[in-house]
Design a protein that fits this description.
The chain has 132 residues and is mainly alpha-helical. It folds into two domains: 68 residues, no CATH class; 50 residues, no CATH class. Helices cover 40% and strands 3% of the residues. The protein has five helices and two strands; from the N terminus they run αααααββ. A two-stranded antiparallel ribbon has the order 1-2. The longest helix has 21 residues. The protein is elongated and about 80 Å long.
Length: 132
């Protein structure tokens, strides 16, 4: 039983007709069903394991199980300098080597000013997100 004050899940053979109706006289078919035999209750058993005693904290184990068995994020292939230079060259009608040199100069400028502690602001680029 999940709750201590829950009604019995199986009909009591010693109670003739009493378990078929609830206290207010309405027929309740769920009181006669054995909910522990349903397939979905058994499918959760391997993920979470048997219930632990009340005093122990098992929330971390459940979160780890959901992290390991839950949906995974699929990442795209990392774009390297050459592919980025080809893409920029295709869009700007520049030679890929000229774009590669410009990217190297941009990298050196960003590193130099970052070491100096000078913030750099590029319009439209905010911490890896495209600004609207």
């Amino acid at each position: 039983m999940i709750f201590s004050n829950a009604p019995p899940l199986m009909a009591d053979p010693d109670d003739p007709g009493g378990s078929e109706s609830s206290d207010n006289g309405v027929y309740d078919p769920l009181r006669q069903m054995d909910l522990t035999a349903l397939p979905f209750t058994q499918s959760l058993q391997p993920i979470f394991g048997p219930p632990e005693p009340e005093g122990e904290n098992n929330m971390a184990k459940r979160i780890e199980a959901l992290r390991d068995l839950g949906p995974q994020l699929k990442h795209n292939k990392t774009l390297d300098e050459r592919d980025l230079a080809k893409w920029i060259a295709m869009r700007t009608n520049l030679h890929p080597n000229a774009v590669s040199l410009a990217l190297l100069e941009l990298k050196d400028a960003v590193l130099y000013h970052a070491h100096q502690g000078t913030p750099i602001k590029l319009s439209g680029l905010v911490l890896g997100q495209v600004a609207a």
